[in-house]
Fold these 4 entries.
Entry 1:
Amino acid sequence: MTKVAIVTGASRGIGRACAIGLAADGFDIVVNYAGNTAAADEVVALIIALGRKAVAVKGDVASEADVAAIFAAADRMGTLAALVNNAGVVDKAQPVVEMSTERLRRMFDINVMGTIFCCREAIRRMSTRLGGKGGAIVNLSSIAPRLGAPGQYVDYAAAKGAIDSFTLGLGREVANEGIRVNGVQPGLILTDIHASGGIPDRVEALRDTIPIKRGGTAEEIAEAVRWLVSDKASYAVGTLITVSGGR
């Protein structure tokens, strides 16, 4: 049966690089995206050019119905073997005192609840205890939880801190069910997520705070994800890999 990987938020940035990289590793891919159909279709075309199958599925991971549709698409393709929880959002840079309830709910609904919803669905399919064949889950986090992002994204840092704790706990919870759960903590990466937060030149502005003196690329993060998904990481459980240029 074909090995299938779901990559959430796969139309751009890190998710895009992960989807293409995992296709090169022999997976058929469910390319989840939130709104940019043209970008998602481009990723699908690139995967097909690599000789793998791919389908683009629009969906908000904060919606349980949308998550169900994403996983149903994977079921139609083959056996789910990998999940990369990459979908996430930031918001405009703000101090906490100015943050609205709507902003906070969106931040945690997408970044935290969405990841948990997707993990729950993956476990139902992968768990050997439930009749599955095992698999790998990689949750994208950030170095923000240990920096705190004061004055800008404290809510984002808190949400990613929740993902770190969830990854550690879930990794230990399902390790004996054939599922390896791990996480990657990127630093300042050259993607357009910074523009969506209102600071498009954020990486360049903070370059001198990075010991390696440059921003990272989406492909450099994808390499860590691909390793964690692969059999080469067969003894990695509840591991958080920091890829941040030393920051």
Entry 2:
Amino acid sequence: MPVEERALWLDPEGSPMLGIVTQPAPGAPATGTAVLIVVGGAQYRVGSHRQFVRLARALAASGHLALRFDLPSMGDSPGEPVAFEHGSRHIGAAVNAAAALQGVKRVVLWGLCDGASASLIYAASTADPRLAGLALLNPWVRSEASLARTQLRHYYRQRLREPDFWRKLLQGAVGRQALRDLMANLRGMRRPALPPLGFQDHMAAGWQAFRRPILLLLSERDLTAQEFVEYASTHPRWHQWDQHPGLTRHLLTSADHTCSSPASMLESETVLISWLKRLS
């Protein structure tokens, strides 16, 4: 299906942010759903290996409108950097712009890594009734304790079973350093993950309060994804997170953090588009 793209400025009276709208061409079928792509990490609207460009065009080819944008100081947006946990006002400005576009009936937030975290924080802080769903790819919950716990479960447990690890340990510094790292992780697990009301707690509040559909995409080969599951499964504020009534959970087979392989990218797009059909 043909698509068209155009630029627009979001929040011109506050912190101007450049956005790109990708939508079905005039006359093509449209669903009325706008997907707001919330970037993660130190990225701009294109994304690693053009991930966000490809995603936006795949969405538009399926009848959805997509809006991706540069946060202040990123890409073509001026201003000072904004930490993801303080990005709700900027996400709100993008939601306002998306909701005002012709033909838009509902808005969905799609976020990667701390973009997914920021989306949950926005849901917690605003209870925005215009949100029809959240699509979250490998949400970020990093803390010293959560990283230590995840590394022990998903890395060191496997390493301790490998003869190569014990050979290196007996041969010298490389093995001894690995053993020191293991002990450091054991110590890190005993420390408090974060003081009360850290960003993970605001994420949990958004998760628990959001009563509409959530699509959780987890990459099989991503430590961040494994860390999210480990954290949410052990932290009391995430109690029964996997029993959320609107949750659809999908494991992206062999995918890395940004779904960099063509197969992983296609799988993530296909699952998202199928999920969006149920929101119409």
Entry 3:
Amino acid sequence: MESPNSPSQLLDSDWFIHLRTYFEGPDYPKVLNRIQSDLQANISVYPPLGQRYRAFELTPLSRVKCVFIGQDPYHGSGQANGLAFSVNKGVKLPPSLNNIFKELQHEYPNQTLKAIASEGDLCVWAEQGALLLNSALTVCESAPMSHQNCGWEPLIQKAISTINTQCSSVVFVLWGKSAQQYKPLIDAKIHHIIEGVHPSPLSAHRGFFGSKPFTTINKLLKKQGKSLIEW
């Protein structure tokens, strides 16, 4: 079982100084106990431990340009890889990610897009400063939202609050109600907020398609003199 106060993937990260109070507090052991309980009951938990904090690993605090907040990891075998909306290479695109790629192609019809070329592994975004953060970092197999309200939320709140105070002019992308609950933690006078419906097939046709979030992000980054994301 992982040590409550030393998530090894984060020890050398510039995130850890700001997030360590969570890992040394009461919520993190609750998460670990829940995961351990599921594993002892022979329930698979995704993503694997080595990828649980991948969003923070690939996007250091000092490099955050934009933030996408997802709900929880994909709950099928081999799908989740620690980045919101992302899947491992060779895995069939989930419906939400497929819709994201449709909108992306609509916005950039004449360009070769890195994320699509990488078969859905969005590390190509994360390494450029796009923090892909789920509101729960784990999930049980075939049980969406199974690890919501088990102790991850304070970590996500802490991460967003840290970006709010330690960074400037970050673009927050809040798709759907689950992501929009974090809006009160963001100072709109300092940062930019893009709100909209979730790219899920249940809602994408109610305003996600045609919303142009990716070109909007890059326009805002360009205005700030920051390098653009190569989607």
Entry 4:
Amino acid sequence: MERSRMIWLFMKERGLPHPGAKVLHVAPEKCIREKITAMPRVDYVIGDKHEPGYTYPSGTMELDITNMEFPDKHFDLIICSHVLEHVDDDRRAMRELVRVLAPGGSAILIVPMGTKAETYEDPSITDPGERLRHFGQFDHVRIYGLDFPQRLEEAGFQVEELAFADRFSSEETFRYGLRRGELMHIGTHPTV
């Protein structure tokens, strides 16, 4: 997918993960997982919330992103793409991601975003058909608005918002199969 290619290009540009890094990849995309697994001297942890009907790569730990059992300031890099829109208590999940991110580390955070100023969510909507109608997918619980960076900051991140694909020429965008205008958010630990 274009977002996976965007993540990989971003990581290459920033030299991530560096040798010796501890990496947490939530709901890992296969193409990125394979590339990181092949890197020497990277402590790579993959986790996902195990749901019936899905298969998970070998070594995927059961992970509740709202209550992780990792020590504080543990990971140098966190990749969390298209996860938070599935999490009922996303603000708690964001605080957990800040907690386990080491000073100087980066969290790559990507969510599908709408164009409205505020995030739209309604916890009373639980029917998959109604979630599809309201949030665009049967298992989403919100549509993030332009306030997503503010929500990350309220959780404790320092946030860099990037339209990363927009820095490439039209030819490069086509060659890499990127989507112009898609935003990625890079969170850093506030102690840096």
